[in-house]
Write a structure and sequence with these properties.
Blueprint: E1 5-7, H1 14-21, H2 24-27, H3 40-50, E2 58-63, E3 66-75, E4 83-90, H4 99-114, E5 119-122, H5 129-137, E6 141-152, E7 155-165
Parallel strand pairs: 4-5
Antiparallel strand pairs: 1-2, 2-3, 3-4, 5-7, 6-7
Bound molecules: coenzyme A.
């Protein structure tokens, strides 16, 4: 596996971040909150947002000085405030190298250490084998399979709910 680090995204890296993010194959596996096309302006806006919460909830995935993706924990509120939702993507040239499996492990540790939560969950589409495998390798358990609840890119998609609990 290539060496990578998780660290705060820098506005100086917005251009490369946008170039990697501007990929329909990435967008097609995420919610529509992830823009497509992914412009430099969108990258700057996103990176600025990641600088607001303390501790940081979204970290960049870097190989050397290059931002190649992002991984984040999104807080829920009200009666769901003990949960955070994990989201992530990595640039296509780096797929299948074991990076996200390792990044998820680090983010789970980070999440349970820095936030007052007891459950981290992710909701891959049923066809997202790479994401499902990366979650299962990190001991996330399949809690639910919801049939055709998502509507993405003109098609209905199954929604899987995978979660890991703080022990
Ligand atoms: C899904 C994604 C995050 C996986 O990241 P990755 O760094 O390629 O994952 P890993 O290399 O850690 O792979 C985990 C496992 O899945 C397998 N895998 C990865 N991509 C795969 C694919 N497209 N099809 C089948 N298996 C795949 C890997 O071989 C590995 O299995 P192994 O350990 O048995 O060899 C990445 O493909 C991506 O960013 N996709 C677009 C955005 C996205 O889907 N985000 C998640 C939304 S829930």
């Amino acid at each position: 596996m290539e060496d990578f680090v998780l660290k705060k995204l820098s506005l100086d890296d917005a251009m490369i971040f946008a170039l990697h993010a501007n990929n329909r194959k990435i967008w097609s596996n995420l919610t529509d909150r992830f823009p497509h096309p992914y412009s430099l302006e969108k990258a700057k806006d996103f990176i600025k947002l990641t600088h607001i919460p303390v501790p940081t909830q979204v970290l960049g995935i870097y190989i050397g000085e290059e931002p190649i993706g992002a991984i984040g924990l999104h807080p829920l509120d009200d009666v769901f405030r003990k949960n955070m939702e994990l989201g992530y993507w990595i640039a296509e040239p780096y797929w299948g190298k074991g990076i996200m499996s390792n990044a998820i492990a680090q983010m789970v540790e980070y999440g349970f250490s820095n936030f007052d939560i007891t459950r981290i969950f992710a909701r891959p589409f049923g066809r997202n084998i790479g994401s499902i495998k990366a979650l299962e390798k990190n001991n996330f358990l399949l809690e639910a399979t919801l049939s055709k609840t998502a509507f993405k890119d003109g098609k209905y998609e199954d929604e899987l709910i995978y979660a890991i609990r703080k022990t």
